[in-house]
Amino acid sequence: MEKSTLGFFMLVLTIVQTSNSLVEGLESTRIYDYTKYHPMDEIYKWMEDVERENPELVSSAVYGRTFEGNNITLLKFGLQNPEGKEKKVIWMDCGIHAREWIAPAFCQWFVKEIVTSYKINKKLEQMLQNLDVYVTPVINVDGYMYTWVNSTTRRWRKSRSTPPSGSSCFGVDLNRNFNANWGTVGVSFDSCANTYCGKEAGSEPEATAVMDFVGKMVSQTLCFLTIHSAGQLILLPYGHPQISAPNYDELVSVGKAAAAEMKKLHGMGYTVGTSPQILYPNSGSSRDWARLVGIPFSYTFELRDKGEFSHLLPEDQIKPACEEAYAGALSIITYVHDKTFNSGAIPSAAVSGVAMVMLSSFMVVFLTTGVN
């Protein structure tokens, strides 16, 4: 047998062996429907399944409780560093605004992509050896659950904390409650308003949970990504029009590179800039808090669309919206990883183009049919 043919079959054999171990961790990801919106009980169950089926990669933590006592739970993704180096941190959260269902859908999609590809993607494997990635699919659990009650509650945005004295209006805009120029611009002190910022910075347990947990690892955290909708924007600090991030130019450059990657998939344009530049001034956001405490890269993704459906994005747009958002997030994560660890991109395996096509087709069939 010629060496080239033997080499190809050895490569296929390696992929089969890798795939066998990969499929062991794919049961929930193959069954779970990532093109549908899921209520909170299904998301909690899915998180348990992902952790149980991927013990070498995934762990979980309850790092806070909501006003109504529900768990705020994250999934942590990371591999052991082979050289024993200190690992850095990437933070991602979704669902801080209850009605933005595409955001939790994306966090679930992001998890699926990591779990199903890290064993066959050398670059991703390398990044997971250097980084711990923390993902919270839903921060505003109370509000998210409330949006599932019926059609009249579907557009609820805020948390579900009890009204202040003299008011009958529930909830606080959690993305106006962080300790970042709190209460200065783009907020309301009327508890009935959607942008009500609360009685004081950190008055809400959901915001405090994030600040306390992330605050303990600021020195290790490279990037803070918070996912919202809608508008197709990549927002960078700060929401206050008179304050600029010290690394503003780099934030813009990295954001524009991410937007370019996103556009390649489905032609959707994402605008990059600060909130005052391309949306409206605001204060008390988690993005601004992260940059103020010293996390160098902090972004808000505002996913699809630009107004036709807004927060009621149809399920048939979940897949393309998540595909483009994943490309953008991965672009940013790769940049901050390579900048920190001084490593270039790992080239693809040195096999011919025909072999790569055959191999890709094989993997698609294998992962689609599964193992009986």
TrEMBL record:
Q: What keywords sit in the KW lines?
A: Carboxypeptidase, Hydrolase, Membrane, Metal-binding, Metalloprotease, Protease, Signal, Transmembrane, Transmembrane helix, Zinc
What Pfam families does the record point to?
Peptidase_M14 (PF00246)
Q: Which residues form the active site?
A: 302
What is the organism of origin for this protein? Pagothenia borchgrevinki
Q: Name one GO molecular function term.
A: carboxypeptidase activity
What the record says about family reads: Belongs to the peptidase M14 family.
| Position of the signal peptide | 1-21
Cofactor needs: Zn(2+)
Bilayer-spanning residue ranges: 349-371
| Full protein name | Peptidase M14 domain-containing protein
Q: According to the lineage, what is the superkingdom?
A: Eukaryota
